[in-house]
Automatic annotation (TrEMBL):
Domain Carbohydrate kinase FGGY N-terminal: 1-242
Name assigned to this protein: Xylulose kinase
Enzyme class: transferase
Gene3D superfamilies associated with the record: 3.30.420.40
MF annotations from Gene Ontology: D-xylulokinase activity
Protein family according to the UniProt entry: Belongs to the FGGY kinase family.
Presence of the UniProt keyword Transferase in the record: yes
Binding site for substrate: M79, H80
Sequence ranges assigned to domain Carbohydrate kinase FGGY C-terminal in this UniProt record: 252-436
Enzyme active site: D235 (proton acceptor)
EC code: 2.7.1.17
Amino acid sequence: MYLGLDLGTSGLRGLLTEGDGRVVGSAEASYPNPHPASGWSEQDPADWIRACQAVMAALSEAYPREVGALRGIGLSGHMHGATLLGSDDAVLRPCILWNDTRSANQASWLDARPGIRESSGNIVFPGFTAPKLLWVEEHEPDVFSKTAKVLLPKDYLRLWLTGDHISDMSDSAGTTWLDVGARDWSAQALETSHMRREQMPDLVEGSAPGGQLRAALCTEWGITGPVIVAGGGGDNAAAACGAGCFAEGTGFVSLGTSGVLLAARDSFAPAPETAVHSFCHAVPGRWYQMGVILAATDCLNWLSRSVGQSPEALAGALPGRISGPGALTFLPYLSGERTPHNDANMRGAFVGLDIGMGTDALTRAVMEGVAFALRDSLEALRRTGANLETVLAVGGGTRSRFWLETLASTLGLSLALPAGGEFGAALGAARLAICAESGADPDQVMTAPEISETIAPRADLTALYDEAYQSYRTLYPALRQAHK
């Protein structure tokens, strides 16, 4: 038996599988995501441990025999978080998360230093880990001076599970400290950002062993042991493992809290000027690139709170088929933006509001605006040489047929919808555990899901959506000027 633990922004999910990947059961536990100041996003790492204990208690109660036979655990988690530990492994401050933009000035400074983009393969975004430590050095010098280790969120959970300071290549690629081509820490990047190698965890591939479950936890959870903990992966790399996205030309689009358009690559082909992320994959010798928008379903959640209707009610009020773009345009920069603008200070807007418009018009505009932002990511990916024709469509936003048709016709890509069952980051983490414990070939373990339906772009409407997208693109410069 194998377990995938996916540490998300709002909760932890555990997925129990057999050795052939068939799902046995799952459990979830949530935790808060405080925003103590504008642009700030933090979490207490102790909440992750409590969530893991709750998930394991639920799984042990529901599946005692299966949990007892556990042989491997894989970890997935939200990337870029800065978890600072003292010499005794005590947490020194709340973890600064991926969607925290306080270190925009530090990111700009670091991005301009010679050799940084060349080794990391990326622009230094405010959400990345390295600029956060520069912010801590400037604003919390006592904390900075006491920092003995910096761990990514899932790797702090690993520390509790195993007692080891270990990370994998895919998650570490989002710190700016990793030489993404060489798949090792960059001495130059560490020195430039005032860090030392001994403050970094040891590195393993995501499909390799990355520690062993502590004997005390084996006893507590009724596991005969031993249990290998795999290197695991950042959430998008793990999701790609769950969806079987490895070969050049394969990829997925995710309508989750954030929006992601990911393309698997057989080689390291960075193009940081596009603001596309170029990261190590969670298996050896593979990489991936992705465009990221900071708010996708989060935009619909924001509208839901603002008008007092659930996201499901808002989405359900729209028709099942699209008829062309609306007159109202939404720019989804509620928390700034990554691809292609790298602009932490940008904020969103509605353009073209009319007194006769209601919530349906607002909802439609939000969905179209997210689709236009993902089209920005597609254009950026194409400039790197990535070639996508059909992509898997995953995430909560895919429950809306209107949103899917809008996205397909805006991107000009067919969207393949996985059939029922698991295919996300938790399954990818479990698959990494299977490889780490058994030595199985990832290409044989991490197969693509069965497809239930493919949604093609509406040929009669693609020209209209392309025209609307071109108009959308002209709005950013004017809105950026207004926010200076």
